[in-house]
Amino acid sequence: MNRVAQVVLEGNMNGIIVGGAGNIIKDSVVKNNRNDGVAIYGRNNVVANCYIITNGYSVKLLEADLSELHDNYIARNERGILVDRSDDVRVYNNRVEDNVYGLFLLNLNRALIYNNSENVKIGGAKAVWSVGPAPGTNILGGGVVGGNVWISPDGRGHSQRCPPRRDVPEICETPYVIDGNNVDKAPLAYPGPASKGGAWLLLGLSLAAVLIVFIILSRRRAEVLRRRDGKNLYTVWSLGRNVCSSEEAASI
């Protein structure tokens, strides 16, 4: 059993490589390593609350049954998370972005994967991709935990385009089909920019407010005053009684 905590591993051929059961890697920074950021060979291991960036592979779990990978920031690696020949693995609460792929699953029968941001490649694997929905803080900061968030840079990811559920707006109305064996039944709805419909509604309300103000003001006595300034005449629109006195108006 190994425990690695609060270390910085940078600029090596590999970051952390451990074997055997019961390893815990947490609260660490692993970056700029040429090959693997974190590689674990063995059962019942944990990688948690780590900052894993700009490595070759970010994390490898190989023959790592009953292992957990959670609450990590994994970004800008050549490869994301590889899980191979590992059953009963849990991958959750990870921020996975800007990798060639986020999660690569091979040769596993049981895994629970939820509340991550990721893109996925699958080969011969079947996993459960959601829980709940249930109260809790999801990867987007919302108050419901369900499945994962599926987004893409072009704005066409499932989470970016799906209509939200009426009863649980944080969750998509439609499931996300990854492949024939894998479905995220409760993908998170991405809270992106307001829809065109919402923008038109906002514009309509703004125009209505302007119209109401105009009607209120127009009920006040309007005066058109022509004033002489030397040789020039100019017109003043007055909405109200106190812009100039009646004597002043009569003299113009």
UniProtKB/TrEMBL annotation:
Keywords: Membrane, Transmembrane, Transmembrane helix. Pfam families: NosD. The chain crosses the membrane at residues 197-218. It comes from the Archaea. Residues 2-155 form the Periplasmic copper-binding protein NosD beta helix domain. InterPro entries: NosD_dom, PbH1, Pectin_lyas_fold, Pectin_lyase_fold/virulence. This is Periplasmic copper-binding protein NosD beta helix domain-containing protein. It comes from Pyrobaculum aerophilum. The lineage of its organism: Archaea, Thermoproteota, Thermoprotei, Thermoproteales, Thermoproteaceae.
